Amino acid sequence: MGGDQAPRMVLRGANIARKRDPNLHFVFYGREPELKPQLDKLKKLRPNAEIVDCADVVSDDAKPSVALRSGRDTSMRRAIEAVRDGHAQGCVSAGNTGALMAISKVLLKTLPGIERPAIASFFPTLRGESVMLDLGANVQCDARNLVDFAVMGNVFARSILGVVDPVTGLINVGTEERKGHETLWTAREMLAELPLPGRFHGFIEGDDIAKGAVDVIVTDGFTGNVALKAAEGTAKLVSVYLQRTFKSSLFAQVGYLFARRAMQKLRKRTDPRRYNGAIFLGLDGITVKSHGSTDALGFAHALGLAGDMARQDFLEKTRNELAGIRRDPEGQRAAAG
Amino acid sequence: MGGDQAPRMVLRGANIARKRDPNLHFVFYGREPELKPQLDKLKKLRPNAEIVDCADVVSDDAKPSVALRSGRDTSMRRAIEAVRDGHAQGCVSAGNTGALMAISKVLLKTLPGIERPAIASFFPTLRGESVMLDLGANVQCDARNLVDFAVMGNVFARSILGVVDPVTGLINVGTEERKGHETLWTAREMLAELPLPGRFHGFIEGDDIAKGAVDVIVTDGFTGNVALKAAEGTAKLVSVYLQRTFKSSLFAQVGYLFARRAMQKLRKRTDPRRYNGAIFLGLDGITVKSHGSTDALGFAHALGLAGDMARQDFLEKTRNELAGIRRDPEGQRAAAG
Hints:
Chain A is of the alpha/beta class. The first copy, chain A, has 13 helices and ten strands.
């Protein structure tokens, strides 16, 4: 029921995701009277879909604490319960982010050894794709949290992005050892000792994100949130500048006609909908948050991402990685903070 | 003597700045044997220029504390001394940033009421130009520091960017009152009460930077540094994507030929050299830090910026604004933190 164009875009998104992956099965939690007419229109989706009628929805402006205490019969809560109870392998929502995180934390709990879940996302870089976390779940983080993020990001890069030996970097205001503050120095030392596949690169700076200098970008939720949005804002700015440029003269307009197909390819490749889906990592269950403003195509990507994570046994792999670190004496120290 | 192409680019930069503003006078601090042959080549610059021979330079990798204690005869120190002693109205360097800030702080001191100076820069947005601070001088800031930054940014926006009633925003991970952390909540309350020309907009998010949602963007040095570099990295990424796109097919290449002039205009407008020059605000003297990797054109912009600030009586205006706030009972509280 969440998102600007819900529930229509949710069902249509599922239909696109089904075309890509006919083995996906969908359970839609929401008001059946609104969902059913939409689902009836999508004849090929129907065999792969069911509706669970829920009386309530979590509103977009509800405070997480209020959403948590509110009725048991919200569509958001019941979808997460389905994940907890094993009726679903993952939950995707375009609704209230804070509420989704709060309810997921309470119902799914965190993975053993993880103190706080993080929000992660991946995006295109000069070298391919990188994953960054945290993007806003934890405004303030200690070194231990940052190390946990690195572990989760490492598993994500390997199992979902297909990077064999992921390189991890920690965001700072410089690459020298004593730049930044003490939390970062401690985290850096712990990460250097962590027995993870791949390599720890050390500190990176803001411009290393788009460069693709590393595969896994670790930072606190405040910095990550601002950096990602600053990057998104800049991409949008350049795109507007470019549109204006192509309209600025007759020659430029003709130029655009010639370059149009190439430009469309570029637009397709950098389409934010392709990267829709923020993953709540560190929970003992898969929850993916779609942008509220996305359309069916964007929502289909978020659904596909949840499907990939389930199929790749993402949780099991993370659990094993965390247990391995704890068995390792060096890692023990690191994991214990 | 600082910067990748120094001292040649410094002298050539001065020559470009002189062409734009024949009233500028230049004193070059550095090794005369290296400077003189370069200056002799620039015949029109010579009447506006002198060289002060200095035995030493601050190296790029010197720690600020070491640079501070090191010999009295470094070109950096003597250039800042000239500002302190009134022999120069501003100092521009492409050298070691940390050393430049440390020496400037010790020699020039901060303006009355300012506890810590900040690094500021301005850049293009969807609506024009905005100034952001701090960009890395203060990795951790309290509410009082953020308020000081807002005052300095306000004066800068009015006197240098020519914005009559600047709108100020405070970076956070959301725009709601209780997003982020306590320092931001306190700063927000203090800023709302501050008697400054213009308006306080409240919290802004990372994507509001490029949108130009506000004229003055206030944040701590860690966040500002990462956000600015993340934005720069993204702009570079999009530009590389675009180059590849224009080369991706024959049609696209022809398209580029038609659109070339318009593209060149865009490139000129967004040329990072146009925005070269990070300003050390809050000091009782003008210090501008040029990118170390810039060329003569970029250095000329940094020189022009220092010239503008001197001509606009930037320091006097900031002093008055700070005094005004302290006279105002509401401001008193705000300024006292």
